[in-house]
Design goal:
With about 350 residues, the protein is mostly helical. Helices cover about 75% and strands about 0% of the residues. The longest helix is centred in the first third of the chain and has 30 residues.
């Protein structure tokens, strides 16, 4: 029995969220030992090494084949917007308004994703998919609101933090949209489409290029005594960073592009936002945070919403919202006819 595109996209989105929980844990530990700037730099370099090696083993070449200049430009924009600008803005928001409020505002990113998908990519969402997205986002917001800040926000930076987090909320799905365009889904023959694996490698290279000036400025601002204090912890810090690079920029970003390739942008972004829910089992043991009943209920709501999304095709058909066949009108989760991701092609992942 063949696995549907929707199932592949949903599984990849949930899997990516799970990996990002692990990468958050590893990068937090690494950042405490060698600093955030070092972690951000090393994670990109490590990920490029892992992705390049994997691409060489899978496709027999180190440099991915991209059919058109427009696709190269789209993937480059995706890397700079989605990996450089988004990550930097989100981290700045964490510092200014705290992670709880930042993550709460980031739950708006699937809304922007759905807008980009509808107006630019021509993706339509059925009623069940929209309900599932709403329920999932409500559950995520519930969980985030239950979590307590380690220390109160600084009011004088509240506006700046809000601006940063909204930049992140817009850039994340915008980067995903350019990834989808860069992979050539629905715009070039299947043989010329770029696989999620190859697209991730290209994005990461351009993301690192975009981070270069930020890293140079940051390193110049780090005081010498702070660098000296971190020297004894480089061994463990690099080890934690490598673990985070494996689960985040390598496997996590790869799976996120699979999710975007096989499901509409809005749905993919919703499922990629589940990390605050998935981290709940770890918060008490690792961070000594109390797991409240309300947070658990919020997690149940979010998972229920994800379940509605996974069954959206069936629900819409049974309720009579889908009158045409999938081949004629696209499926209920949003892929228009003729715009589904290729299952075969010159660089399709095995």
């Amino acid at each position: 029995m063949a696995i549907s595109d929707t199932t592949i996209g949903i599984a990849a989105g949930v899997g990516a969220s799970g990996f990002w929980v692990l990468t958050t844990i590893f990068f937090t530990a690494g950042g405490k030992r060698i600093g955030v700037t070092a972690v951000n730099t090393l994670r990109m370099i490590m990920a490029i090494g892992l992705l390049g090696t994997t691409h060489l083993l899978l496709f027999g070449k180190l440099v991915p084949e991209v059919a058109t200049t427009e696709m190269w430009i789209a993937l480059a924009l995706s890397g700079v917007i989605g990996l450089t600008i988004c990550d930097q803005a989100l981290f700045s928001a964490f510092l200014d308004i705290g992670p709880r409020k930042a993550l709460l505002f980031m739950t708006t990113s699937p809304i922007f994703a759905a807008i980009f998908g509808y107006f630019i990519l021509g993706e339509r969402l059925g009623p069940a998919s929209l309900v599932g997205m709403t329920v999932t986002l409500a559950g995520i917001a519930w969980v985030v609101l239950e979590r307590q800040e380690a220390k109160p926000e600084r009011a004088k930076h509240a506006v700046r933090g809000f601006i940063f987090v909204m930049i992140g909320a817009i850039c994340q799905p915008l980067g995903g949209m350019f990834s989808k365009i860069g992979m050539g889904i629905g715009s070039v023959p299947e043989a010329d489409q770029v696989s999620p694996m190859a697209a991730t490698l290209v994005r990461m290279v351009f993301g690192l290029c975009g981070m270069a000036p930020i890293v140079l400025i940051s390193w110049r601002m780090v005081k010498k005594r702070e660098q000296e204090a971190l020297k004894p912890k480089w061994g463990s810090g690099v080890a934690f960073t490598f673990g985070g690079a494996v689960f985040g920029p390598y496997l996590g970003v790869w799976l996120s592009l699979v999710a975007m390739a096989f499901s509409p942008l809005g749905i993919a972004q919703t499922l990629l936002s589940l990390s605050p829910v998935m981290i709940l089992p770890f918060v008490k043991k690792l961070y000594n945070e109390q797991l409240t009943r309300a947070a658990v209920l919020g997690a149940v709501v979010a998972v229920t919403g994800a379940g509605i999304i996974s069954a959206a095709d069936t629900i819409d058909r049974r309720l009579g919202f889908t009158q045409q066949s999938d081949e004629e009108a696209g499926d209920a989760t949003g892929h228009p006819a003729g715009k589904r991701p290729a299952e075969h092609g010159s660089q399709t992942d095995p």
